[in-house]
Amino acid sequence: MRSPPTVKVVHQACCWPPTAAAGEPPGAAPRAVGGAVERPRRRVRLPGGRVRVGTHEQLLPQDGESPPREVRVGSFAIDPLAVTNASFAAFVGATGYRTDAERYGWSLVFSAFIGEAEGARIGADAPPWWRRVDGACWQRPEGPQSALAGRLEHPVVHVSWNDAAAFAAWAGGRLPTEAEWEYAAAGGRLGARFPWGDREPDDTAFLPCNIWQGEFPSRNSGRDGFVGTAPADAFAPNGYGLLNMSGNTWEWCAEAFRVRSLTRAAKARNWAASRGQERLLKGGSYLCHRSYCYRYRIAARTGAAADSSTGHVGFRLVFDD
After folding, report:
1. pTM (two decimals)
2. Which residues, listed in sequence order, are joined to residue 310 by a DSSP beta bridge?
C-alpha cells in the first residue's frame, strides 16, 4: 500500500491571495438592500447542544486549528446547499445589488482558466497562479468573455463577505458561526476529519468531494469530474443531508478570523481581524490538495478581508427558528 503524500505546511498561498481588492476600506459594512424577503425552502434543522470545534492534530498550527474547544450552540436550520448562481441572480434582480467585485471592476481568477487573456495580470502580493482580471465577477467568473451558461446551479463565486452578508439579510438568514459550521459539517460523526468520516481522498478511486487531483498548480486530472466548481448538489451528502461541506468552494462564516495562540504573529493577525480586516472561511475548495493545501478537513480554516473576492469562494445560510 502506497504511503500518503507528505503534508506541506503552507500559509494560505494556494487558498487565498493575502491582499484584498483595492477600493473601499476592507471590512466595510454590508450595504442595505431592498426587496421582499425570500427564504430558501431547503432546510435541515439541527438541535442545539455542546459541540467540539477544532482538532488535537497539529497539521496547520498557523491557522489556529488547535487546540480543540467545546462550544454551546442553539438549535438552528441550515441550507443543505451553498447559495447558487440562480439564487444570487434572483437576489440581484430583486434588489439591484452590486457586488464588491463589480464596484471595484475586477476580481481574482485561477490562471489555468484564462491562460494569457487580455486584461489579466498577477495580483499584488498574490501567488502566480492567481490573476487579477478586469471585469471578472459573479456573473462573469473568468472575465468579460465568460458567462454562467450551464452553471446556474453551481455555487456563486466572486462574492465577498460583505456580499454574502447582504444576501443573508435579504433572505432572512445569516452566515454560520464556526461552531455551527463544524457541527453541521460533521454530520453526526463526532471527531470526524471529513464530512464522510476519516478516509482520505485520493487522486484515482476515492473521490468524495471536489478537490484537486494531480500536482498543484500545474496539473489537475479532473478525475472527480470537475476542474472548477461543481453543481451545488454534486457528490454524496453527509449524515445530516448537507452537500459539499468539503471542497468545491470555500464558505464565509460570520465571525472575524482569529488564531488562538500567544505568538507574536497570531497577536498581530488577531488585531487585524478585530478591525474587520479578515473574516473566517471554512471548507476548502476545488484548488485544495493534501500535498499542498490540506484545508478541506472540517477543522481547517483560513481568513480573508471582508471585501475580497476570488473564483473559489461562496457561502451558505443558516436560519434561526
Report:
1. 0.86
2. 108
